[in-house]
Amino acid sequence: MKISTQRTITALVEDKPGVLNRVTSLFRRRGFNIGSLAVGPSEIPNLSRLTFIVDPGPGDVEQVTKQLLKLIDVIKVVDVTDSETVTREMALVKVKAEATSRSEIIQIIEIFRADILDVSPESIILEVTGDSKKVDAIIELLRGFGIMEVMRTGLVAMTRGKLGPLTSSHHNGTSPKGD
Amino acid sequence: MKLTGSQMVIECLLKEGVHTIFGYPGGAILPFYQTLPQYPQLRHILVRHEQGATHAADGFSRATGKIGVAVATSGPGATNMVTGLATALMDSSPLIAITGQVARSAIGKDAFQETDVTGVTMPVTKHNYLVMDAKDIPRIMREAFYIAQTGRPGPVLIDIPKDVQQELAEFVWPEIVDLAGYKPLSEVPHAQVKKAAELINESHRPLILAGHGVTISGAFHELRELAEKAQIPVVTTLLGISSFPESHVLHVGMPGMHGTAYANYAIDSADVLIAIGMRFDDRVTGKLSEFAPHAKVIHIDIDPAEIGKNIKVDVPIVGDVKPVLKAMLPSIAKKTHTEWVSQISLWRKEHPLHLRDTKGIQQQYVIQKIQEVTKGNGIIVTGVGQHQMWAAQYFKSDMPGTFISSGGLGTMGFEVPAAMGAQVGRPDMTVWSIAGDGGFQMTMSELGTMAQEKIPVKFAIMNNGYLGMVRQWQEVFYQKQYVATPLFNPDFVKLAEAYGMLGLRVTEKSEVIPAIKAAMNYPGPVLVDFRVVEDDNVFPMIAPGTSVKQMIEEKESLVAMEDPPEASS
Q1: Is position B278 annotated as part of the catalytic site?
Q2: Considering only CB atoms, which chain B residues are within 8 Å of A14?
């Protein structure tokens, strides 16, 4: 089996125009593809939290996290790949559902504890939440029925335990994780 | 008190201690320019090209340790600054660029002379701003100056729409800067410093690699004390030149591709490298796996991203060079390292830099004579290429901050406007621009600026009719296939005269010193056209991707290189 070189990185950034551009630009410069990206407000006013999945391949992700920390609008960067984390993403899936296949599809939805959001004569829109593996799995199972559209939010990640990623200063140390 | 955006910008410049700015007007920056007459205490120098403004501001910063400011209009004015910003970023030079932008209502509509300047300059600035509200100007200006000059210095650009320059708002000057994501003032990491001192005390063949960070930090005395106390030889990188007196017995020269053989041998044999404010550029290290194979590495740098970027570091120290060295000095044991120091002296005797006795004028000879006549009491600003490497090898500077060169980006043409900026910042010193005949023609339009503003830079054009360094690479790596390297040059003396400057031509060795003296005795800008030998090459040379083991010391040894390594960059 191919060992994944994907890294999960979270960042706390100023909620300002252009910040996302500055952050993603550093990955672009190194030719790292961003597999998924989720952005939203954090618990601190005017600060946003980002989670992104990048695949640096043989590249050096540590150098990128260090460069990210140099951005003035970036307050904190943590590579949480090797930490204990909980991760979730949400997907909306529109699947073909004729009268003959509908009940089988609904069974699968129930097994995955997904929700049906919309039903039309030919299709169903469902919502599934979980880690990426779970989302991949239900999409795979539904593929045979005919998937019309998939929209995924991108993964969000949070480290477990009481120490949040904001607990140490970062410009002072040499560790890219800053803690 | 309500002020216009333009007035606020100028008030902020004055509060930050700026007295001189370099710029070029245009539509979107005109409200700013029309405000200048209200502030006669601010000198504006009209350049001939916005690239010149940025290099001049850069040269000003490097020569004075203060901050240079460049101003341009939107669109082409701003895009012309990109090379200057990239040059300053690579060499950690503080600089403020102020650009006009189209009015807020026109942004994003492909208006006349509109460019997404914050987008374009994002990768070539330390930070940049688009000001969308005049009331933000004092805070942004304050932050910009703070960011540019603290931590690892660099250029900061402020893009101001035309209508924001005209907008009235309350002027509130923030006394302090508080940026959640930027806390450059770090404590000295004492535990790491102690570890480093122990490593140094135990070493038998320690070597200091001093870089630009020593100069930026103003740590000349601390560096000298460290070297003298433990008798540690000092290698200075291209931008580290003049951070340690070159006449000092412990000075070993420049390392790397065109460094001295003895500096590279010293790195190859050292058991501890103390890298201070330098970043292990590929031109310094050559092949990484063969660089300093016996050495443990102590790396002191203010930028955490530089630690471990290119080479493995045993004792990383993130911090400002001066306080770190200060903290380290008491723990450093007095040593003599007699054997090590004399070994390096032996290498120096066996592998010296030497000048062939040619009939024609060699560039090295001119540089040596400028050195002699100025008695080291001048500032040298170089371009990029052979003359730059020879200047680095032969100009012996004992005074901090007197060697100015575009190191990281390698910007040809830097030497003309940067020398102008250095001279404006240091009117008390003679500024010599050592220019290549290629690079000079990239930015020679600034002669007009110097003539207009009476800026008395002395230009030494190393006129060999070739893009010399490129030609050298074609000779070594491309089987002497000389493509696009011979130059048709103008009559540089007539060119100088056309600008009302003094122009001199030197074709004989015997005329070199008289011409240098004549240039220095002339009160205004002078251009000396030195007709130097055509086919000289810079040695020693370590080809890209190779190591000291494949160092080429003499022209003759080129023949012995049967299988030249592929030129990678």
Answers
A1: no
A2: 180-181
ipTM here: 0.87
In the structure, what pLDDT confidence band is assigned to residue B359 with cuts at 50, 70 and 90?
confident
For residue A13, which phi and psi values (nearest 5 degrees)? -135, 160
CA-CA distances (angstroms) from residue B296 to A125, B203, B272, B470? 61, 9, 5, 36
Q: How far is residue B557's CA from residue B555's CA, in Å, rounded to a whole number? A: 5
The CATH number given to A88-155 is 3.30.70.1150
CA distance linking residue B208 with residue B342, whole number of Å: 16
**Residue B74's CB: how many other CB atoms inside 10 A?**
28
Give contacts of B119 with chain A, Cβ < 8 Å. Answer: 21
Q: Which fold has domain B2-170?
A: Rossmann fold (3.40.50)
Q: At the top level of CATH, which class does the domain A7-84 belong to?
A: alpha beta
Residue B432 to residue B416: CA distance in whole angstroms: 10
Report, as an integer, the average pLDDT of B539-551: 90
Helices A19-30 & A61-70 angle (0-180, nearest 10): 150
Residue B137 pLDDT grade (very low, low, confident, very high; cuts 50, 70, 90):
very high
Among the listed residues B125, B155, B276, the one whose alpha carbon sits nearest the alpha carbon of residue B215: B276
pLDDT given for residue A164 in this prediction: 56
Task: Write out chain B residues lying below 8 Å of A74, CB-based.
Answer: 181
Report the gap between the CA of B110 and the closest CA in chain A (Å).
Answer: 19
Q: Does B123 touch chain A (CB under 8 A)?
A: yes
* Residue B207 host element (H or E): strand B206-210
Q: Do B304 and A171 touch (CB under 8 A)?
A: yes
Residue of B nearest to A61 (CA): B309
Q: What does the DSSP assignment read for B20-63?
A: EEEE---GGGHHHHHHGGG-TTSEEEE-SSHHHHHHHHHHHHHH
Please give the share of chain B, as a percent, with pLDDT higher than 70.
Answer: 97
Mutation choice for A interface testing from B120, B147, B177, B182 by most A CBs within 10 A: B182
| Domain B190-350, CATH homologous superfamily name and number | TPP-binding domain (3.40.50.1220)
The answer to whether the CB atoms of B126 and A172 lie below 8 A apart is: no
Domain B363-538, classified CATH 3.60.21.10, yes or no: no
Mean per-residue pLDDT, B299-315: 95
The answer for B 151-190 residues in CB contact with A (under 8 A) is: 151, 179-184, 186-187, 189
Cα–chain center distance at A143? 22
